[in-house]
Task: structure prediction
Amino acid sequence: MRLIFIVGLLFGTLWAETIDCTQVFESRKSELLKEVEKIDEARQSFEALQAATNSLFDKQKRKLDAQRADLNATQKAISKKEEEIKKLLEENKKLLEAINGAKNDKISETYSKMKDSAAAAILSELSTSQSAAVLFTLQAKKVSKIMAKMDPKIASKVTQRLVKGPPFEED
Result:
């Protein structure tokens, strides 16, 4: 009898625990379903956020690419203008050299045809640098004749300036 009682008690305990486990699993199942729904909602929110972020990133990338293209075009235009300016500057330098050469030739020719005393009087009235610039263009023989007719103090200053050499700019 005892044996039957123990076996009955054992089956009763097992049956009771099986029912309790099923109830626990059922209640846990509904909790898990709610958690799965929350996770699914969170996943959907994440995907929506990710799509919005990717869209914004793509938009910013297109804008940046457009700005780069615009910057490159501007840089090319600036480079082209720089080259044009360099060419114009070189042409202007050549023209200025030609003009200065023609001017110096004309002045040199004028003073070489003048009488020595007249040229000395005119050069004495000019600044030291200007006198030196004119004398520098003349032949040495003509320079010596003109300086012989000049006041010795002025001739000395002009000679000092000639020794320094060109360019003969005002000090």
